[in-house]
């Protein structure tokens, strides 16, 4: 039976560390770090995430500036808001909750964020810095996954890692991070042939697909470490209820792997803790505090 990697507990520790860092920052800077979260429209899942980010900010002693705009907001108005937040000295980090309504060009909006305030790590500047080994913000979800992997495995050098998914916000930055750790990295996606075989060679599997329980236990190399990024809401056994499952068939994986992250309670809480971590780092950098 594999170990369950307790992302929720690890995230709680990281949040406590950030809280202490915030106190030290405030003593020197005379102000708290500030995070601006922009939500456009009424997507219920997005509203839940934004609420938990706000709560986490406040608990860590940070300022949270919430901007909830109606779904009909024009791209120009949203870009104008980003411009204001870029110029606002009280704002250290800017997060624009994705997805945006269809009439708004996501790339254009993300690119408008000052890279020094890009605590999500989504701008081209941040992605380029990560890819070329320069200092910058790393996307929160892959950063959280890396922290869990290093905590569990120590040195990752030489390990074979398969990432399933190649999105700009999870799969690609995850690949860059693991490459930096000297893993031998394979990125699988919807055109990958014989995914089971590809996964079967991996010491580390990161699943970021968005398909409930698609990675089967029998595909895994015995003793593998499995990081499940997927958040899928599916019907529960009880009539009319839903539950969250990951992209990995958890019970099966527990029979073969050495360690597996659960959903919920795995990667999700790490994403929010890393957002706070990045926001504190942004604030320190902007104030010239080591
Ligand atoms: N825990 C957290 O904090 C977060 C969780 N998530 C969750 O992680 C999951 C992935 O998110 P995200 O990266 O944004 O998703 P995207 O939809 O942007 O990307 C999904 C990726 O999976 C690949 N894929 C789809 N079907 C298959 C298949 N059958 N076999 C192999 N690969 C496949 C796609 O390939 P192709 O490129 O060829 O289409 C694509 O690269 C979702 O469940 C999301 O909810 C996301 C962000 C944060
Ligand atoms: N600009 C932007 N940045 C993001 O980081 C971003 C985004 N947009 N859009 C949506 C995705 C998704 N995401 C999650 C964050 C926390 C949990 C999380 O805490 N999940 C809990 C469960 C929460 C529940 O019960 O619904 C858990 O896994 O334990 C999940 C998913 C961040 N995202
Ligand atoms: Mg869109």
TrEMBL record:
InterPro entries: Aminoacid_DH-like_N_sf, NAD(P)-bd_dom_sf, THF_DH/CycHdrlase, THF_DH/CycHdrlase_cat_dom, THF_DH/CycHdrlase_CS, THF_DH/CycHdrlase_NAD-bd_dom. Its EC number is 1.5.1.5, 3.5.4.9. Residues 139-286 form the Tetrahydrofolate dehydrogenase/cyclohydrolase NAD(P)-binding domain. Signal peptide: none annotated. It comes from Croceicoccus mobilis. GO terms for molecular function: methenyltetrahydrofolate cyclohydrolase activity; methylenetetrahydrofolate dehydrogenase (NADP+) activity. This is Bifunctional protein FolD. Residues 5-120 form the Tetrahydrofolate dehydrogenase/cyclohydrolase catalytic domain. Catalyzes the oxidation of 5,10-methylenetetrahydrofolate to 5,10-methenyltetrahydrofolate and then the hydrolysis of 5,10-methenyltetrahydrofolate to 10-formyltetrahydrofolate. Keywords: Amino-acid biosynthesis, Histidine biosynthesis, Hydrolase, Methionine biosynthesis, Multifunctional enzyme, NADP, One-carbon metabolism, Oxidoreductase, Purine biosynthesis. It catalyses: (6R)-5,10-methenyltetrahydrofolate + H2O = (6R)-10-formyltetrahydrofolate + H(+); (6R)-5,10-methylene-5,6,7,8-tetrahydrofolate + NADP(+) = (6R)-5,10-methenyltetrahydrofolate + NADPH.
């Amino acid at each position: 039976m594999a170990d369950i990697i307790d992302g929720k507990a690890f995230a709680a520790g990281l949040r406590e560390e950030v809280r202490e860092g915030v106190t030290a920052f405030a003593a020197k800077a005379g102000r708290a770090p500030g995070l601006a979260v922009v939500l456009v429209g009424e997507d219920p899942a997005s509203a839940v995430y934004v609420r938990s980010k706000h709560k986490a900010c406040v608990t860590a002693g940070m300022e949270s500036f919430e901007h909830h705009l109606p779904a009909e907001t024009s791209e120009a108005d949203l870009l104008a808001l980003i411009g204001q937040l870029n110029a606002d000295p009280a704002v250290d980090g800017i997060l624009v909750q994705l997805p945006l309504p269809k009439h708004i060009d996501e790339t254009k909006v993300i690119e408008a964020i000052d890279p020094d305030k890009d605590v999500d790590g989504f701008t081209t500047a941040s992605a380029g810095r990560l890819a070329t080994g320069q200092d910058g913000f790393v996307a929160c979800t892959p950063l959280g996954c890396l922290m869990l992997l290093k905590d569990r495995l120590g040195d990752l050098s030489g390990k074979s890692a398969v990432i399933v998914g190649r999105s700009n916000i999870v799969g690609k930055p995850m690949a860059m991070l693991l490459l930096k750790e000297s893993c031998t990295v394979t990125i699988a996606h919807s055109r990958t042939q014989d995914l089971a075989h590809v996964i079967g060679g991996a010491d580390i599997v990161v699943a970021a697909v968005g398909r409930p329980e698609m990675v089967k236990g029998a595909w895994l190399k015995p003793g593998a470490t499995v990081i499940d990024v997927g958040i899928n809401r599916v019907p529960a056994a009880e009539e009319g209820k839903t539950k969250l499952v990951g992209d990995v068939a958890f019970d099966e994986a527990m029979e073969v792997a050495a360690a597996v992250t659960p959903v919920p309670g795995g990667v999700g809480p790490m994403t929010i803790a890393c957002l706070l971590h990045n926001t504190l780092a942004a604030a320190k950098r902007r104030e010239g505090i080591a």
